Amino acid sequence: MEPTTVTLRFTPLPVHVRTARLVSAAVARRSGVSEDVLDEVRLAVGEACSRAVDLHGAHRPDAPVTLRLTDATSSFTVEVVDLVPQGTPPVPRTEVAAIAAVPALGEDDDPVLAHGVGLAVIAGLVDDVHFGHGQDGLTLRMTWPLTGDAPGRPGARQGASTAGTAQVAPGA
């Protein structure tokens, strides 16, 4: 069974972080993430998206933040992708940005501690967290196990692919 992925791209405005949290929680619930874990999903997605919005606002205000939600057979994965190149010094616009500053990593650096308190909070909420630096920026991948039964799961598995992309306009 192929994983189903929903992609959300939004302008780097703090108001869109709430939308990202709501969409993530809805897709997680439909995918079969335990109700006990949904608050962790909301909080982790909020932290990751706030960090990306702050970095984009300072360095790439024209580029959207990308959020990918993947419902695989046994797990639910969230990826938050910023387009700020590694090594770009953060310019905090908010207190959250000042805490979540992202320095370049050395080989022996702990990625959780090197990325600041904001990402350390995410690591405390999510057991399976990976940070990947690419040429275009950081991909933060968080994975949660599925409990099995979910309201929308059987129909999504039997029907055609439900992959999609949504764009959130600046004034939305």
TrEMBL record:
Positions of region (Disordered): 148-172
Any one GO MF annotation of this record: protein serine/threonine kinase activity
Keyword Kinase: yes
Keyword Glycoprotein: no
Organism superkingdom: Bacteria
Histidine kinase/HSP90-like ATPase domain: residues covered: 10-144
Annotated Gene3D superfamilies: Histidine kinase-like ATPase, C-terminal domain
Keyword field: Kinase, Serine/threonine-protein kinase, Transferase
Protein name (record): Anti-sigma regulatory factor (Ser/Thr protein kinase)
Taxonomic source organism: Motilibacter rhizosphaerae
